[in-house]
Design a protein that fits this description.
Elements lengths: L2 H11 L3 H17 L17 H18 L21 H17 L7 E2 L8 E2 H23 L7 H11 L23 H8 L7
Antiparallel strand pairs: 1-2
C-alpha cells in the first residue's frame, strides 16, 4: 500500500464512508428490484455482460469484500466469469450479498486505520477500502439502470465521494473488464466525471 497516495482520500472519506457504503448498497438493491421479467438478458454498459451477469458480478464482489473482512466464505464462482444463469431470484442473490457485506463492515471500528480487501492492492486505509466496496455496488447499479431504462441511482454528492476513492486506485482493475479505459467527455458534473473515469459514457 502506498500511504502517500491514499492518505488524502482516506482523510476526506473518513467522516462519510459508512453513509456512502449504505447509499451505494441501497442503490444496487433498488435498481435490481426494478428490473422487469423480460430484461434479464439485455446488454449492459459492461462489455459482453448481460443484466444477469452484471448482477452476479456485483453480488460476488460484495461477498468477496465480506470474506476479506472475515465474514462468510466468499463467492462460489468467479466474479469476472458470471454464468448468466441464476438458481434463485436476482433480488435474493443481491440481498444476501449486501447483508453479508453490511455485517462485515459493521465489524470494522472507526479506529481501524486499514483493512484487508480482495483487491490486488491488499490492505487499504479503511475509508478508501469501504468506498471502493461502495463504488462497485453503485457503478453496477448505474449499469443496470441504463440497461433497463431506470433513472440513474447516482447523485453528484455520492459520485464525488466515489471518485475520490477511485482516482488512481482502480488502475490495476481495468484489465478485468469491470472498469474500461477512461472515456473522453465534457461532462461537468461529478457523476459525469466518475462515469467517464470508470470507462462509461456519461451521456447514456
Amino acid at each position: 500500500m502506498n500511504d502517500t497516495i491514499h492518505a488524502e482520500p482516506a482523510t476526506a472519506l473518513a467522516p462519510v464512508w459508512r453513509t456512502v457504503l449504505a447509499d451505494s448498497h441501497r442503490a444496487l438493491a433498488e435498481v435490481v428490484a426494478g428490473i422487469a421479467d423480460d430484461q434479464w438478458n439485455l446488454p449492459t454498459p459492461c462489455a459482453e455482460w448481460t443484466v444477469t451477469q452484471v448482477i452476479q458480478h456485483a453480488a460476488a464482489d460484495q461477498l468477496a469484500f465480506a470474506q476479506a473482512l472475515g465474514v462468510g466464505a466468499g463467492p462460489a464462482y468467479d466474479p469476472f466469469a458470471p454464468s448468466g444463469s441464476l438458481t434463485g431470484t436476482a433480488a435474493d442473490l443481491v440481498t444476501a450479498a449486501l447483508d453479508e457485506a453490511t455485517t462485515a463492515w459493521a465489524t470494522v471500528t472507526d479506529t481501524a486505520e486499514a483493512v484487508p480487501t480482495p483487491l490486488p492492492h491488499g490492505a487499504l486505509p479503511t475509508p478508501v477500502a469501504a468506498v471502493l466496496c461502495a463504488l462497485d455496488a453503485a457503478v453496477h447499479a448505474w449499469d443496470l439502470a441504463v440497461a433497463t431504462g431506470q433513472p440513474s441511482p447516482l447523485t453528484d454528492e455520492l459520485a464525488a465521494h466515489l471518485l475520490t476513492a477511485a482516482t488512481g486506485t482502480i488502475e490495476p482493475l481495468r484489465q478485468w473488464g469491470a472498469y474500461g479505459p477512461v472515456v473522453a467527455g465534457t461532462e461537468g458534473s461529478a457523476t459525469g466525471a466518475l462515469l467517464n473515469y470508470l470507462g462509461r459514457d456519461a451521456r447514456n
